[in-house]
Amino acid sequence: METPVAAAAEHQVITPSILYFGTPVVLLSTENEDGTANLAPMSSAWALGQTVVLGLGVHGQSARNLLARPELVINLPAPEHWPAVERLAPLTGHDPVPAHKQGTFRYEPAKFEAAGLRPLPADLVRPPRVAECPIQLEARAADVRTDTAGAFLIVEATVLRVHADPRLIVPGTQHVDPARWSPLIYNFRHYFGLGPELGSSFRSETRTAP
After folding, report:
1. pTM for the structure as a whole
2. How far is residue 172 from each of residues 76, 167, 168, 176, measured CA to CA in Å?
3. Which of 22, 101, 118, 129 has the most CB atoms around its CB within 10 Å?
């Protein structure tokens, strides 16, 4: 007779301070008022079709830029780039530093240099791409609005052009090879990459055998 599987313990009610339950890190390039570039890490992004929805702090420089100038580049770093992302994390392009960031963040206008990253010209938008990022999405903000509480900016960005490292592309196709691409994941304020593949969706155009 088989031994019954032990029942899982009852769930516990908790109140986490944040709900970053495993989302990809984005390095967002936007244009400052003086034409220079701002580069900011963020971790609230999801894609549907050719639209990427972004969640930004309403008082940050990226939000300020997108309200005035809708062009942007959504750069997706790989797991090995987490130190560069972390170098950007305590910086702000907003001068003066917003009140809620004072004491924790410092003003830094030269974000690329501070992170040790290189800008590349985009084809269709003014903000630059991040050379080191394996996937770069040139986009334009089609809708920018605050959330219901007024604390965050919700940006719906239409992707205009996708740049991908050739090593990530399935040969002879327009598909990114999921076995080669591993996004940098922000999981409750810790950085992770992907683990081994478990399987593929029945809708995948690059399905693997079960």
Report:
1. 0.90
2. 23, 12, 12, 11
3. 129
